[in-house]
């Protein structure tokens, strides 16, 4: 049985609260989806303006409309200062204390900003709502992080009387960054968004499971999507070196990832060429068989990835255990061996292993030196505990991911 789309070519309003030009992993996957969508649909992408001088700024091949807000930060400061002034007047504070309050407020602007759900972006929402005519579109799609994307979509719906569909895409759940102070307010906002939405997609199986349990009344609207990949045919090329090579390419800050067991295992594997490349808050030393480098340009990084025979991914630990590294999807687009080192809470590890084991694509081990060394040696000798298929996972192909979205159009 084939699903028939209601429209062959539709006009879609895309809302991205995170600037398209921000060089983040979320934007990488977001832009893949948008490029594929644009092949058969007319997209209008709304995004927040971004400072071109920022180190994370990158040119985008996605056309977009950029909405900034001149003096946005100052407007928000003035709003807070007005409240301080009113409160101080009520309490008959001295002029000296008032001046002190103004100074402290400027210094603590960002701290004050975080105490509000949307902070200064409240003004951005107001501006865009006044600039958009929702009647010009057949569908609205809001993409987070940040959740301000969904807030803007919600406010647009409240301002227009129409029957177009609303699709939400969540790369991360809102409550990943919750504080006790904001928890109840955010849950109430989530409920409003879910109630009005037609379809809600989570790009993580653990978050999908969590949200369908939390919001059982909307479970029929909530769907699971995997992160989209582009199949890497270049990785078919065999590494001509007789020595096996292992590469870890990504950040390894201690607050969410423990690189030390892999580092120690690599030092012992003297017959391997080993690489650890990425940002961190710790210093690791080079060895004769181990190259350590900070973050490097994307093109250079791809060259290193192409030359190694084994790619390594380390899952997050502590409170980030439910966050699945995007690298596991990226590497599944290749024909290379992949070692997935599991870390974090036991329940999260079990669920992650169960989900990805079904693809028969990854070798798993615990995040300790002995386990890592054993599995790397097995892979190097083409010995596996179970059948492993070193081919791209077609289910993750961006064409299939977008196909899962468009069947609800």
Number of helices: 14
Silhouette: elongated
Mean pLDDT: 85
Give a count of the beta strands, DSSP E runs of length 2 or more: 13
Sheet-strand content, in percent, reads 15-25%
What's the helix-strand series? EHEEHHHHEHEHEHEEHEEHEHEHEHH
How would you characterize the largest beta sheet?
Answer: 7 strands, parallel
Q: Which spans have pLDDT < 50 for at least 5 consecutive residues?
A: 109-115
Topology diagram in text:
Blueprint lengths: L10 E6 L8 H13 L4 E7 L16 E3 L4 H19 L4 H13 L1 H6 L6 H11 L7 E6 L3 H12 L5 E6 L12 H14 L2 E4 L2 H10 L7 E3 L19 E6 L10 H9 L3 E6 L12 E4 L4 H10 L2 E5 L12 H5 L5 E6 L3 H12 L5 E4 L2 H12 L17 H9 L3
Parallel strand pairs: 1-2, 1-4, 2-3, 4-5, 5-6, 6-7, 8-9, 8-11, 9-10, 11-12, 12-13
Describe the structure in your own words.
The chain is of the alpha/beta class and 409 residues long. The protein has three domains: 11-68 and 117-228 and 401-406, 3-Layer(aba) Sandwich (Rossmann fold), CATH 3.40.50; 72-114; 233-392, Glycogen Phosphorylase B (Rossmann fold, 3-Layer(aba) Sandwich), CATH 3.40.50.2000. Helices cover 38% and strands 16% of the residues. The protein has helices spanning 25-37, 72-90, 95-107, 109-114, 121-131, 148-159, 183-196, 205-214, 260-268, 298-307, 327-331, 346-357, 369-380, 398-406, and strands spanning 11-16, 42-48, 65-67, 139-144, 165-170, 199-202, 222-224, 244-249, 272-277, 290-293, 310-314, 337-342, 363-366. The strands form two sheets. A seven-stranded parallel sheet has the order 3-2-1-4-5-6-7, with helices on both faces. Helix 1 (25-37) crosses helix 14 and helix 9 crosses helix 13 (369-380). The chain is elongated, with a radius of gyration of 24 Å.
């Amino acid at each position: 049985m084939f699903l028939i789309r209601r429209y062959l070519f539709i006009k879609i309003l895309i809302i991205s609260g995170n600037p398209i030009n921000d060089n983040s992993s979320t934007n990488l996957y977001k832009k893949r989806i948008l490029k594929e969508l644009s092949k058969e649909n007319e997209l209008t992408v709304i995004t927040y303006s971004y400072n071109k001088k920022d180190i994370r700024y990158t040119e985008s091949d996605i056309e977009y409309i950029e909405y900034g807000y001149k003096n946005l930060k100052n407007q928000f400061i003035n709003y807070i200062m007005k409240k301080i002034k009113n409160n101080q007047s009520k309490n008959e504070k001295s002029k000296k204390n008032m001046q002190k309050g103004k100074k402290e407020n400027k210094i603590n602007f960002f701290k004050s900003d975080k105490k509000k759900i949307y902070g200064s972006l409240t003004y951005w929402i107001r501006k865009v709502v006044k600039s958009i005519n929702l009647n010009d579109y057949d569908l609205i799609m809001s993409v987070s992080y940040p959740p301000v994307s969904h807030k803007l979509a919600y406010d647009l719906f409240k301002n227009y009387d129409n029957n177009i569909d609303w699709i939400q895409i969540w790369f991360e759940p809102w409550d990943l960054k919750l504080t006790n102070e904001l928890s109840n307010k955010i849950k109430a906002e989530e409920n409003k968004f879910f109630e009005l939405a037609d379809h809600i997609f989570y790009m993580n199986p653990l978050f999908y499971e969590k949200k369908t349990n939390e919001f059982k009344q909307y479970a029929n609207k909530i769907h699971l999507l995997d992160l989209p990949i582009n199949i890497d045919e270049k990785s078919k090329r065999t590494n001509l070196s007789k020595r096996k090579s292992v590469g870890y390419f990504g950040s390894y800050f201690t607050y969410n990832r423990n690189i030390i067991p892999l580092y120690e295992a690599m030092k012992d594997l003297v017959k391997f060429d080993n690489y650890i490349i990425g940002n961190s808050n710790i210093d690791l030393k080079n060895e004769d068989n181990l190259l350590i480098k900070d973050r490097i340009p994307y093109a250079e990084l791809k060259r290193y990835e192409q030359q190694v025979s084994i790619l390594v991914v380390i899952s997050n630990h502590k409170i980030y255990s439910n966050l699945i590294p995007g690298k596991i999807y990226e590497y599944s687009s290749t024909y290379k061996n992949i070692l997935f080192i599991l870390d974090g809470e036991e329940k999260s590890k079990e669920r992650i292993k169960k989900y990805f084991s079904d693809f028969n694509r990854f070798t798993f081990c615990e995040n300790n030196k002995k386990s890592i060394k054993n599995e790397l040696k097995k892979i190097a000798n083409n010995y596996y505990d179970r059948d492993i298929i070193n081919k791209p996972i077609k289910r993750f192909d961006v064409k299939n991911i977008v196909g899962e979205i468009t069947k609800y159009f």
